Amino acid sequence: MNFAFSSTAQSYINRLQDFMAEHVIPAEAVYFSQLKRGERPWVVPPVMADLKARAKQAGLWNLFLAADEHNKVHGAGLTGLIGLSNADYAPLAEIMGRSFIAPEVFNCNAPDTGNMEVLVKYGSAEQQQRWLQPLLSGEIRSAFCMTEPDVASSDATNMQATAIVEGDEVVLNGVKWWSTGIGHPDCRVVIFMGLSDLNPKAPKHLRHSMVLVPMDTPGVKIERMLSVFGDQDEPYGHGEVSFTNVRLPVSSIIAGAGRGFEIAQGRLGPGRIHHCMRVIGAAERALELMCKRAVRRVAFGQPLADLGGNSDIIANARIAIEQARLLTLKAAWMIDTVGVKAAMSEIAQIKVVAPNVAQMVIDQAIQIFGAAGVGADTPLAAMYANARILRLADGPDEVHRSMIAKLELKPYRNSL
């Protein structure tokens, strides 16, 4: 296993770092000043369009989508794909994770990345032309509607929403929430997951379907936007959405009825790599801010770096970040070399490790900053909230630990 970055990856690393330093980080204050706070509809800050145009021109666009995935499309004439491996993309995701606004600048933000991967791997030519191409071009945004308010969605087999085939139509009913991206003014389509087979005795992982739902379809209603630690995360937002007798052509079902869980598993592996590397990038920025504060801020006649156990805190943060990064790179390398199924334990491990490490490091940075760390003058409070959310998103820590233990114990149980 070689941890050296390929020449292609190193070239993108250098270019992306330069672009971030020259354009993205300096634009953060402008971006947040342009956000319209309060009730929907929210606006997309004008500076974002300028940054996206610059990123496209620089060839730093759709970095997340691998070349072999591009080759699987159904002759839809898709454009704008780079073709990096997961191991090549991982350091780029980390760089983007240093800024809240960066992923969208490069058209690499969730849930659009996962939705695009689904359409590349499983979408029909018609679905790719209608939805994938404008997503790749950055003309529209999307959301993913899976989690439900009335059941424990950490066990997705609990799902109650339905997607029933009636003749040449599929009829959707149910309520979803924490549908990230649903509040974005450019959100035009969602992927809805629901039960297609209501027989409780049917194989539980063959009962669900994923359906592409245009936002303007009759029966689709955003009931409310949900706040996260008191913030509504504009302009993306997380919504509670009702689907009431929503009728769509059967051709809106992705890959056919009953394949929802198969698609979900194909979606989550690379997506978790993206999340984990981005949050490691946030931890790196937090450590950098912490170190600058610690050497410049003086209390009781000494720099903060020399007070109490702060030097140990900084050292332990560096150790933890390096460990998390190496484990995430290993998982990315395994996805590339042996596939998602063989890397299930490593993917679950990084999903536990990376957000917990980031939460710890960012919390320590906040402590070094004092009151300034919890305000809006630094990105630390938003980073902390994001890291904490990631311990629930794409499955809570406990579910991933259960998977790790199950895989670890399997050979021993089989030997009994």
UniProtKB/TrEMBL annotation:
> What cofactor(s) does the depicted protein rely on?
FAD
Single GO MF descriptor: flavin adenine dinucleotide binding
- Is the keyword Flavoprotein in the record? yes
InterPro entries in the record: Acyl-CoA_dehydrogenase (IPR050741), Acyl-CoA_Oxase/DH_mid-dom (IPR006091), Acyl-CoA_Oxase/DH_mid-dom_sf (IPR046373), AcylCo_DH-like_C (IPR036250), AcylCo_DH/oxidase_C (IPR009075), AcylCoA_DH/ox_N (IPR013786), AcylCoA_DH/ox_N_sf (IPR037069), AcylCoA_DH/oxidase_NM_dom_sf (IPR009100)
Q: Which GO terms describe its cellular component?
A: cytoplasm
Determine the domain of life of the protein's source.
Bacteria
**GO:BP terms for this protein?**
fatty acid beta-oxidation using acyl-CoA dehydrogenase
Q: Which residues form the Acyl-CoA dehydrogenase/oxidase C-terminal domain?
A: 258-406
What residues form the membrane-spanning segments? none
Per the record, the similarity remark reads: Belongs to the acyl-CoA dehydrogenase family.
Classification via PANTHER family: ACYL-COA DEHYDROGENASE FAMILY MEMBER 11, MEDIUM-CHAIN SPECIFIC ACYL-COA DEHYDROGENASE, MITOCHONDRIAL-RELATED
Q: How does it assemble?
A: Homodimer.
Q: What is this protein called?
A: Acyl-CoA dehydrogenase
What organism, scientifically named, is this protein from? Solimicrobium silvestre
